[in-house]
Each structure stands twice: as structure tokens, then as C-alpha cells.
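Note to self: the last two entries modelled the partners one at a time, which told us nothing about the interface. This time every component goes in together.
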Amino acid sequence: MNEVAIQSDGVATPDFKKIKKKQQLIRFLKGILFLMPSIILFAVFLFYPLIRTIYLSFFLTDASGSTTVFVGLDNFINMFSSPVFRKSMQSTFLFVIFTVPGTVLIGLFLAILANEKLKGIGFFRTIYSSTMGISVAAGSVFWLFLFNPTMGWLNEILNFFGIEAIGWLTDPSWALLSVSITTIWMNLGFIFLILLGGLQSIDSYLYESAEIDGASYFYKLRRITIPMLSPTLFFVITVSLINAFQTFGQIDMLTSGGPQNETNLIVYSIYQEAFMNYQYGTASAQAVVLFVIILVLTFIQFKLGEKKVHYQ
Amino acid sequence: MKIPLRRKVIFYILLVVSAFLVFAPALIAFMMSFMTNQDIMSGKLIPTTITFDNYLAVFERFPLLNYLLNSFIVSIVIMIGQLMLSSLAAYAFVFMEFKGRNFLFFVFISTMMVPFEASVIPNFQTIRDLNLIDSYAGLTLPYFAMAFGTFLLRQNFKQIPKELKEASEIAGMGHFKFYLSVVLPMAKTSLITLGVYGFLTSWNMYLWPLLATTNDSVRTVQIGLKQLQTQEQLNEWGVIMAGGIIVVIPTLILLFLGQKRLQQGLAEGAIK
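The predicted structure of the combined assembly is written out below.
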């Protein structure tokens, strides 16, 4: 209805230049109309919060989150000198180092296995991708039992081999590793699916000609599969990196950041600071740090990804 | 190309062992959900007697049905919202030419650099100030606009021949009609892929429902599961597992049905 009304307006103007300008405006307005819903929601729930977070990070707030005192960079200075936050950053980076290579390598292994043309391969593909359909909450509950110190399967297995029981989630030297194992398992399905998609888009002609030359399985893997898969691999690595920095649910369910803040990853730390301690200012300062990390990672992904993607 | 028998055997062994390891946590939970407490306490692998008591208990003691319904409503609303907004935006980027289009496209790309987790504090305040805490609107609205979905559909819309658009213009068809009657039906598979993805991720959301709900009225099943876990006694593992299994069944079915499509669709949206 709108369109009709605008169009008849345009016809009424005699001057050619004016008509052209008007038509341009109409085209612009129509385009904006289609984009408007997304733009408004992005503005309200993405760009505004971003600016607001930066703004809040310079203030102290009351319990409802209204700003009270301007403190400049104090929140940042206090944050970086706080042993708890430094511990949180250290844990976050360790967690990333544990989970990203783990997820990508196991995912790659499974994808290569599941890419063979064997009978019943569809069943295995379904199983390997299954963890994508298992929510963080449900996955955490499953693992919570496996980690259980007395009844859990992991300690039962250790017990069977005569090894002493481990406090998987309660021992400070194990907790972060345990949470990492759970996370690798949770993210495996998604990473597997993307890698399998990448493998299937490799031209089978390449393998056939290598076959004629009598190339071995591992030679083909190293010289054809991995290089041809590199754009997908690259994408998967950056996505896992970003996901790892945003981990929250399994921490909340499994350890609540403990023991001794060992698993207090950055998003959990923000959550605690804002919604349990009501320190919105310092929480925002931490959120700014998280934002900068993600920004850099995404930027690298775009810049490097652009170059790597187009060679096929 | 024929695979030698020896290699075939090795592959099957690796496939089976990996499948078992990947599926073990879910399988154990599934078994436990049918076990009596004695079976669980004595560390049985397979239930000696199959019981449905755990499932009855979890529905009796918890408003699980209510949580499930909430999750369904929230996931479907987000899915529909994402499909509508992404397809409209993708249409504008493919079929409409106007000043500022490239700039707006850049704006869409830049949204991918802002993690939701980093903007969760102001978003919570916004929803609270709009009085949308404990409402479906508060749970779903922040997720409607989606750069990934827009890119995925844009990729697909680009494959629709430009001649169709020209023909439609000659026939006097406006943008909105062309979008509804030609573009959307032609992009059906991509829309389904995006829909499945949207439903899966919404169903599995954790942080936002935790913040945006304070009571049972709209609480989703994921947060319900967290409550179940913290409230149940440690020796009630069967009940907790029954809850966990109920939560994953809808998404697992959806994933099994849509796995092939999802795999192609995700690769397209992500890589190209």
C-alpha cells in the first residue's frame, strides 16, 4: 500500500532531475523498509548495549545499575590489578588452549572417518553430530554424573585399574581440565558437521588422479585433503576460539567458577560481578575486555579468511 | 574406487569405537533414566528391571510440562522472527539497489563482532525497564535480527536468476509481492535449514533465559533442568537423567531429520 502512494507522488513532479532524485529516494526508502526490522533490533540489542557497556565501565553504579560516580579508568585499573580477574583471564586463556585444538583435532578425525564411502556411514555421521542437539544444560547434567566422585564412571574406571579416585570438579588442579573435556564433547557435533561439509565439497577428481599415480592413503590426506580443507579448518578454528571465550552454561552448572576460582572464566566472572555482586561498572569493564578480544578474533577471521577462501 | 578389505576393517573399528565414545555420556544417561535407585547405586551398566518411575517423578515433582511448552513457544517465535527478518534483509541486499546499501551491508557484518555475552548487562536493563522480564517478548526479541541468517539466505537468493526479477517488473509486480510469491518459495530449502538451526540454538539457550526469567511462568526447560539438578538430592540421579533425556529428545529428533541439510547449509553460510 505504501509503495503505491509513494510512486504516484513521483509521477506528479515535472522536472527530470527532480524525478530522478525522487526515484532514488523512493528506492532508498523501499530498501530501508525491508532492512528496518533488523536495523532497529540491531540498534537496540547490539549497538546501544555496546556503547552503554563502554559508558558504564567508567562509572560506579547502584544495585539497579544506574550510574552514581564517574571514576574514569579506575574500574580498569582495579580490574587489571585484581588477582581474581587476573586469575580469571589466565583460566580463560588456558581453557581456550585446552578446548580449541582438542575440538578441532577430534572433529577433524571424526570427519575424515565419516567421509569414507562405507556401508552404514550415515548412522555414524548422525552419532558424531549428535552432541550439537544436546544442550549445555543437559550435557552438563550427563557429565556431572560421570564426574561424580563416588558413583561416577570416570572414577569407577580408574578404580578398576587400581588408580586413586580424582576429584574431577573439586580438585583445583583438575577442575579446569574436566570442564574443558565436557566442552570439547559439547562442541564436537557442530565442528564435525562443518568439517564434514568441507570434506564433501572437495572435488573427487583430485583423489582419482592421485589414485592413478598410486598415492598412499596418508599421502592423499596430507597433500589433498588438508590443503583443500584449509579454508574450512580456518573457519572452524576461529569459531571455536570465539565460542571458547563465550563459555558460560557448563561453568554455571558444573563448578560455579570454583574451586578457588580455577574455572571462573570471563563470562562467568562478568555474570557474577553484575548479577550477584551488583557491580555493574566493574562488570562492564570486564565485558569491554571480552568485546575487544572477540573483535580482534573476528577481524583476523575476516582478513585472513578472505584471502584463503577464494582459491578454489 | 574400491576400498581394500584390510582398510575397511580398520575403518569400521575406528568408526565403532569413536561412535561409542562420543555417544557414551548420552547413552549412560538414557540407561540411568530407566533404572531403579538400587541399580544406579550399585553401579549397574544395564538396568536389571526397566522402570518408568523416574519419568513419572520428574513430571510430578516439577512443572516440566510447563517448561517444555515455554521452550517450544520461545524457540518457535525466535525461529519465525529470524526467518522473517533475515529473508527481508537478504532480499534487500540481493534484489534492491539503493544508495547506502553497501554501508548497511557493512553494518550487518560488523554485528558479528559484538558478542551477546559482552552486551548482556545493558540488554538485561533494557528488558527490565521495558517491563519485559518474565515475558515471551523479553526472551525472544533480542534474537530476531541475525547477520548469519541474512548471509546464508543472501547466498541462496543470489542464485535466483535476475531475469525473473525483470520479468516480474514488466508484469508490474512490486518488491513485496515478488519476495512473497517468487523468492521465498524458491529458497524453501535454505529457509528450512535456517529454521532448524534457529530452533536448535534457541531451544538450547542458557544465559539469557537465566537472566530474563525470575519465576516459572515463562521459564524455559534448560533453566528448569538447572533447578532440577540443584534441588534434587544426590541419590536421585535417575530422576535428573530422565529430565535431561526429555530435554534433548526434541532437538535430537530435529537434528537427525535435518542433519544432511544442516551440514550443507552451515558450510554454505559460513564459508562462502
